[in-house]
Design goal:
Blueprint (H helix, E strand, L loop, with lengths): L8 E5 L5 H8 L7 E5 L20 E8 L4 H5 L1 H17 L5 E4 L3 E4 L2 E13 L2 E11 L20 H5 L5 H22 L1 H9 L8 E5 L4 E9 L5 E5 L2 E5 L3 E3 L1
Parallel strand pairs: 1-2
Antiparallel strand pairs: 2-3, 3-7, 4-5, 5-6, 6-7, 8-9, 8-12, 9-10, 10-11
Helix pairs in contact: 3-5, 3-6, 5-6
């Protein structure tokens, strides 16, 4: 049985421009981790500033987390969040085999994009003091294929694929509980067990994929995620480690 995790705040709004923006506004006064959830977002955003569709009933929340580690270590919490998000979805549906993790920050349901994660940082004097982990889940509705960029994974919703209906606040309870447990594992034992768990649910592991940045693209066999969180591809020119990119199947 899950419960709200000790030490985590809860801030639920009817409407906001973006939970990530709200986290940025709250950061200066935040003394501990706090979940910020909104029933409606009027200016939601995804990776690289792309708009994020937010139909009524879908899930949008940001975890504002005080941090003190080096930026590279802080960024590994995208994997912590991915594992927590998958576990919450399994708890909501009982369907463990239907969910996979797509590097760097998506959760897939039967091959379609169900959820996305976006990390933003805030600090003072050149030091990172807070991490905002934005999470969007298509609980009831997904954007049409023509609303996403060409070649992107098709969007799906939890209700549309599995028929599961869960409210945003009920899902927040599951997610917050799961995240707190993975966060404790991460801060206690480091990235190694998180990496192992993430790899066990990785989409297209051992298959040929393409990683694309604004400057170039690399196609190769998905070999692993390394100890720094990089995507590692086996290519005709050897192993290539990629720190940030969009992945296409």
């Amino acid at each position: 049985m899950t419960g709200w995790p000790d030490g985590y705040g809860r801030h639920v709004l009817a409407s906001v421009d973006s939970t990530l923006s709200e986290a940025a506004r709250m950061a200066a006064g935040a003394s501990g981790p706090v979940w910020i959830m909104a029933e409606q977002q009027t200016a939601a955003r995804g990776r690289r500033g792309r708009p994020w569709s937010m139909p009524a009933g879908n899930f949008a929340a940001t975890l504002l987390l005080p941090v003190s580690e080096a930026p590279g270590q802080v960024a590994l919490r995208s994997f912590v969040a991915s594992l927590a998000l998958r576990e919450a979805l399994v708890a909501a549906t009982g369907r463990a085999d239907d969910f996979e993790l797509k590097w760097p920050n998506d959760v897939l349901l039967r091959g379609g994009k169900l959820a996305g994660i976006l990390l933003e940082s805030a600090g003072q004097g050149g030091q990172m003091r807070h991490l905002a982990i934005g999470i969007g889940v298509n609980l009831v509705a997904a954007p049409a294929v023509d609303e996403v960029e060409a070649g992107a994974v098709r969007p799906v919703s939890l209700k549309g694929v599995l028929g599961t209906v869960i409210t945003s606040e009920a899902f927040l309870d599951l997610l917050a509980d799961a995240y707190a447990r993975f966060e404790l594992q991460f801060t206690t034992y480091g990235f190694a067990p998180i990496r192992t768990a993430w790899m066990s649910h990785a989409a297209r592991l051992g298959e040929v994929i393409t990683a694309r940045t604004s400057r170039d693209e690399t196609t190769g066999t998905f070999a692993e995620v390394d100890a720094a969180g990089n995507l590692v591809l086996e290519t005709p020119k050897g192993r290539v480690a990629i720190a940030a990119a969009d992945v296409y199947f």
